[in-house]
Amino acid sequence: MKRRNFLQTTALSALGAAAVIPAKTWANAPVKSTREPLKNNINHSVCQWCFGDMPWDDLLQALVEMGVKAVDLAGPEHWPTLQKYGVHCSMCDGAEISLTKGWNNPKYHDQLVENYTKMIPLVAEAGYSNLICFSGNREGMSDTQGLAHCVTGLRKVLPLAEKYGVILQMELFNQQDHPDYMCDHSDWGVDLCIALGSPNFKLLFDIYHMQIQEGDIIRRIRENHQYFGHYHTAGVPGRHEIDETQELNYPAIMNEILKTGYTGYVAQEYIPSREPRLEVLFESIKRCDV
């Protein structure tokens, strides 16, 4: 499963209906009753879509048992369930149109402004602070044009975000997985942050995507961390779990993130390739728990 396919088929309107996940058997070993506690220097989160065939209640129960405090990429229809288990929503969604139709194209601005104007107060009222957004695809326009269009559109909703204390976070993607997506280099994203000049606009720095697209992950974090408001992880290559089969040194990366003074969340966003998946998930989290 690719995330863009998942999100496109389950995309929500600003007040969208809940996505329907087909019933499947969650083949997994029982969750261990005791685990080594997490250090909690890193605030851990998990992207639910990667475990989309697992019922929400089952996943949240497992995360609570692991000591994981948050879930990424959940809309308003799931917030009551998160609150039931005391699990935070570290990255809200539901206002975007799609990954490919974003702020870089003026023809989507009216719909995006409407969506984000509705969603920003809901995020704040639920006690959350992060709301995802996307640049959209180039569709033949230059990066300079697209950046200017993003500035024009986002300035229409940033005053509301500032009023409610909500941070809009634009995610960085790589071209291999998301061909033609505009926000595909951290330098472009940083330029957008500087042009907007608002503390309520940041970049979602996806380590997996940026390793594929530009590499030099630790230096990027050192030089630009003030513009990074959130982090995603996954193993490279393959977008699978963080283990010896992949090339990134996640403990070193996590230590660098901590050195910047970052106190937000780091979310696991990978497709499990081994069983039992919950145990493998905990192993990945432990590798990032420096």
Task: Describe the 3D structure.
With 290 residues, this protein is an alpha/beta fold. The protein has a single domain (43-288), classed as Divalent-metal-dependent TIM barrel enzymes (TIM Barrel, Alpha-Beta Barrel). It has helices at 3-9, 56-66, 79-84, 109-125, 143-154, 158-164, 186-196, 207-213, 217-224, 250-259, 277-288; strands spanning 43-47, 70-74, 88-92, 130-133, 167-171, 201-206, 228-233, 265-268. Strands 3-2-1-8-7-6-5-4 form an eight-stranded parallel sheet. Strand 7, helix 10 and strand 8 form a beta-alpha-beta unit. Helix 9 (217-224) runs parallel beside helix 10 (250-259). The chain is globular, with a radius of gyration of 18 Å. 46% of the residues are buried.
Supply database-style keywords.
alpha/beta; TIM Barrel
Q: How far apart are the first and last residues' alpha carbons, in Å? A: 29 Å
The tally of strands reads 8
Instruction: Work out the count of structural domains.
Output: 1
CATH homologous superfamily placement? Divalent-metal-dependent TIM barrel enzymes
Biggest sheet layout: 8 strands, parallel
Binned, the helix content reads 25-40%
